[in-house]
Write a structure and sequence with these properties.
Keywords: Cell membrane, Membrane, Signal, Transmembrane, Transmembrane helix. By secondary structure, the protein is an all-alpha fold. The protein has 7 helices and no strands. 36% of the residues are buried.
Length: 185
């Protein structure tokens, strides 16, 4: 058995910390654990900030964070796990961006840090102290890194872009240009 080096230990610590925080954050959305609001409450919040439909958005964000975080912590399917978590954090950063960078002002500092850590792990790989290594990197192939990151970037851009378009235009149901609706409900 070969000795583990500083890189392996550093990647383990990074995976456990970033993955653990992401997993806990995701379980707040999915199950209401750790003071979270579960799917129902998070779904209502997601609707209020422009991610629609709310429950679907809450489920997707929760799975990206909890699933991606758990897989990162384990070092399993690291390219997919890192890309999923990074995509979820990009969506969160979009919400916080108007508040600036620093978290104390409601900014995107935490979301950016977690997202970049997840993306960095997807690129660097999990190290030898991981399930990916134990399984012969079956779910951690070189081609998976750009594929997972590109697919996640495309989906994230579509979701965040749709949210921004909703925020930029008034709701059709609320605006009639001074005219009465044709039909009463």
């Amino acid at each position: 058995m070969s000795a583990y080096n500083r890189r392996d230990l550093g990647l383990l610590l990074l995976r456990l910390s970033a993955g653990g925080v992401l997993a806990a954050h995701g379980t707040q959305k999915l199950f209401g654990w750790f003071g979270g609001h579960g799917i129902e409450g998070t779904g209502q919040f997601m609707e209020s900030i422009g991610y629609r439909p709310g429950k679907v958005s809450a489920t997707a964000a929760g799975l990206a964070e909890a699933g991606g975080g758990t897989l990162l912590a384990l070092g399993l399917a690291t390219p997919l796990a890192g890309a999923a978590a990074a995509g979820g954090m990009a969506g969160a950063a979009a919400v916080h961006a108007p508040n600036g960078f620093f978290a104390q002002e409601g900014g995107y500092e935490t979301a950016a840090t977690l997202g970049l850590a997840a993306a960095g792990l997807a690129v660097a790989g999990p190290g030898r102290l991981s399930l990916d290594h134990t399984m012969g990197h079956l779910f951690d192939r070189g081609w998976m890194v750009p594929t997972a990151l590109a697919a996640t970037a495309a989906v994230t851009a579509l979701v965040v872009g749709a949210r921004q378009r909703r925020l930029d235009r008034p709701e059709k149901d609320e605006q009639f240009d001074g005219q009465e609706p044709l039909f009463e409900e």
